[in-house]
Amino acid sequence: MKLKDQFRFVRQNMKKNRTRVYMTILATAMGCAFLIVLASVGFGLQKSVVKEITERRIMTQIDVYGQETSENGGYRQLDGKDVQIFEEMSDVKAVTRRIMLQQEAKYSIGDYQQSAQTVVANFPSEISAGFELSEGSLAKDKTEVVVGYNFPLNLAVQGEQTEEMFDDKGQLKEEFRYNGKLIGETIHLTVRKLEEGKQIEKVFEVKVAGISKKPTKEWAEDRSVYISEELLKDIEEFTGTPKGIVLDSAEQVKPADLEASKNTFDDVKIYAENMEAVQGIVDSLKEKDYATYSVVNELKEVNLMFAIAKAGLIFIGTIAILIASIGIYNTMTMAVTERAPDIGIMKAIGANPRIIKKIFLLESSYIGLIGALIGTIVSYGISYAVNIVIPLIIKQAFGEETPPELIFSDIPLSLPIICIVICYGVTILSGLRPAQRATRVDVLRAMRREV
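User: That's the sequence. What structure does it adopt?
Assistant: Structure tokens below.
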């Protein structure tokens, strides 16, 4: 019997008992839809978490916090020698290093002021890492500074700030902020120190040379002021402490601790040439006892956690398909009983037992694959509805808005393929025993309908 004839024979037999076959296909479709929709929750949440991580972090960025010391198991701050080691490593694009003024300085121009973080940055490395200006130029001497993009937007009228000064997004309203030209203007940098419990302030005049480019992320803000290393030394000379740390003379601070903070960096970042090079750089740093963080490491942990969760969900969904396989087994067993005369005739005219077995396996495969395809189509519709309906339910029931980027259900192409493979395998196992039984039917008994 040709393969084409076998398929035609299978379809004819399925039409004879269409109601039972349709119900079996429906049960299989429900099992597949359950598996896909259940697992799609894991895929959807993973996609949301990964998207959140990758949007908030640069994929090629590696944060280095310090190097472990053999003395007490603590970590020491990084210095110029460490930066040189990092720059000599292969696949390193740039190494940025920043020194932070250890007090919140106050900046003012006319009747406007704000407090901002003050940073000493190495601009050649910053530019290699992607730092850009929206206008102006880089500082050329110690009296010039570069301000962050959001710095002018937060220069507020002096005095107590009230809720009326801010909009719904927490931004300073235009009528309360500085709207004049800032490039080339002189602003006042005020720092302080404590002597015998009294606060003493000193004002440094600096000129704004440039403004950094707007951050690419909507949630990000750059309100920092980038000063020269020479200006930081003048501030240290005034405060009498490294990096302008504010200390009262009564405070007991070890001189060794202050000395250790000299000539060190507070923020060091390594930028790899590409994402593939990140893991190699991180491994090299760990061998040298450097404490690091990279989004690639975080993604590996997140993906591992979700891989375990998705495997568990797929396992639970497979149980539904196994339940549906009982219906397939029952349908094929009934088919063998009802078609005993046909099997007897096929054997009488010389049909090979393998052909008979193949016919019944084809029929069970038909049921399983059709059910899997229908279940896949239905699951896509359910997934689409879930992403629309669940946020509405949460809003109505709890009065909370879900983040717009949160995905409750996502069905990648691999998920239906996994489902179809599982369904096909279960279908073959369900139809195998009835198919084997069909090959053992006795011709004479079959003709007398005694199977």
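The first strand starts at residue 61 and ends at 68.
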